[in-house]
Amino acid sequence: MPLAVFLVVAAVAVASALGLVLKRNPIHGALFLIVNLGSIAVMYLTLHAQFLAWAQVIIYAGAIMVLFVFAIMVLIPGKEETGPDSLRPVRLIAIPFGALLLVELVLMLVSRRAAPVAAVPAPGGVEAIGRLLFTDYLFPFELTSVLLLAAMIGVLALAKSRKAG
Amino acid sequence: MLPGSYYTGLSAVLFVIGVTGVLVRRNPLVIFMSIELMLNAANLALVGFGAQFGTADGQVLVFFGMTVAAAEVAVGLAIIMAIFRLRRRLSVDDLSAMRW
Description:
The structure holds 2 protein chains of 2 kinds.
Chain A: H1 2-22, H2 26-46, H3 50-75, H4 88-92, H5 94-111, H6 126-133, H7 138-159
Helix pairs in contact in A: 1-2, 2-3
Chain B: H1 4-24, H2 28-53, H3 57-87
């Protein structure tokens, strides 16, 4: 049963990722990406990482994708990729090289000695994550607040109209 | 529970699709979304490895990764908007100078 769930969700994830890359319209791409993020949240659930699954839905599929869709709507793109592409031959080289990278990664995974699955599944609830965050990872946790503040100030500086400034 | 290599294999496939998207597409917004796809693939690999070793440390790393991704998206989209206001075009091929 877990294998069937994994295979179905993995198929959805790969198909939506391909949709993001292959579809011309960026709005379709954004919707495919939301499906992909949702299926990764299901993957987190099957790995017993409940907290991350909900954080994934709320932060990624919610907040970040709203920002993306908003930006797509504001910028009205769609004309960029219909015109003649002078770099097309160069760009198509990316596909064989991507396949090569995939082969490399899979070879690396196969050649690794398979680690035994841990007998006790990793705790993934809010309590376990919070305990780790506020003990072992307290300093990085505090640093993220600086990062978020810097990002906020940077966005404000970028968004400010240059005439007013 | 399934062996962790299933999850790392899926994450490898998603990562490669993201890399190809970054290289093939011309619209900076789609390139940005492909980068998000790659970030997510890395996150999935982290959680998969964490499950293999039976610790929650991988999940804490993913939590930090999400924070960084949120900050990155906000700043990146602001930069794309600023470029669009300046040039009225949105193709990565036109942008060869990092000039304000």
